[in-house]
Amino acid sequence: MAPRASLPPALSPEQSILSSEIQQITREEFNSNVSKAKSTMKALAALKLPKWLKDKIAEFSQEIEASKRVFEATGEIPKEEALKIHNPKKHARSPLTTTQKPPRKPKKPKQSHPPIAVNLLETDSSHSPEPDEEQTIVSP
Prior knowledge:
31% of the residues lie in helices and 6% in strands. Helix 1 (27-46) runs antiparallel to helix 2 (51-74). The chain has helices at 27-46, 51-74, and strands at 23-26, 83-86. It has a domain at 19-86. Strands 1-2 form a two-stranded parallel sheet. It is mostly helical.
């Protein structure tokens, strides 16, 4: 029998699997998520569930509140939480020179067409001049 290849070490649930797992959110999004989580936990607590599950819900509610307090006190989330709050600068505007409009193409001048005389007193409006008929051009 051939020797087996060694198995990779077991994953630790306390550590992030990838270093690129860190999510970035804004302060407003974090506060919104915390309030949604609190209302969800309140709704779950109102359900008729087994005691062990109600205890877990209460524990989660306390964790959410503790996380909110830490963030309000320090303005940051601990690194092991794999969440980063992005604080955009106020009044941050891009310079006007970075975005240039494409150059405009010159417009073609309109071609003028000479006016064609029309006899408004003619009763037969379906009559159109034939190519061999003479057309009178009235100049203004």
